[in-house]
Amino acid sequence: xxxxxxxxxVKRFGEITAVDGLDLDVPRGICLGLLGPNGAGKSTTMRLLxxxxxxxxxxxxxxxxELPAEAKEARAEMGVVPQLDNLDVDVSVQDNLAxxxxxxxxxxxxAAVDRGLELARLSDRRTDSVEQLSGGMRRRLLLARGLMHExxxxxxxxxxxxxxxxxxxxxxxxxxxxxxxGVTILMSTHYIEEAQRLADEVAVMTHGKIIARGRPDExxxxxxxxxxxxxxxxxxxxAEVRAVAEAxxxxxxxxxxxxxxxxxxxxxxxxIPPEAIRRAASLEDVFVLLTGEEAx
Length: 296
Prior knowledge:
The chain is of the alpha/beta class. Helix content is 34%, strand content 28%.
């Protein structure tokens, strides 16, 4: 039985359909990256899975529990790291962990707190108040808090949003550790590198639907081919190169100040100018082609 099963799930907010007939299953023991631009419906999906929102249509099962009827039972078996920091800033680091350990009826609260502090690398800050911590420390504490009861399933909603690259890498190491321990992880993100680095499988989401899913290398091979050629030049030259490439049936996408000719290994002579920078096709190419959004 999958850890998560969603069938035909719809969630509307007035005239806005945030989740639109979503089908999603997450096998046990994998990390699935839910990759999509802002507004794709990722966070709404997470809220549906935690019982914070109720679907208008469709069925949801988490760890064998029907939602929303058995949301309480499901929440007891999952850990959640929210997108927004909701730590209690008025108490100490260790007390933040202890409160959650007691809420989840952990038998040995002290041992759980010590384990969480070690995981978050905050043992030497245990008596400090949360407001004394840096942003990266607070994100590590949020992750440790969600693991107080050693859940079988972790929901990570944009776990590194707003963090600088160095701190983001530290969080990735912690998530990698969980994955190696067999914890099932559903992680929403709009960071390409995060999805490619952490996820066993990636589900590309836009406008409330999954439009592609597979291992990162599978998605790249299917949608982007083997090679991408990037061309940096004045606008007139870029327009000329684009016209030649598209005349050969090649896909061309914007890439900041450049254009990227995706699947450039299929080009005939003259379609790829000599000044082009050739590189391996990437998940970023797939993301932009499928969603029409610039990647981060």
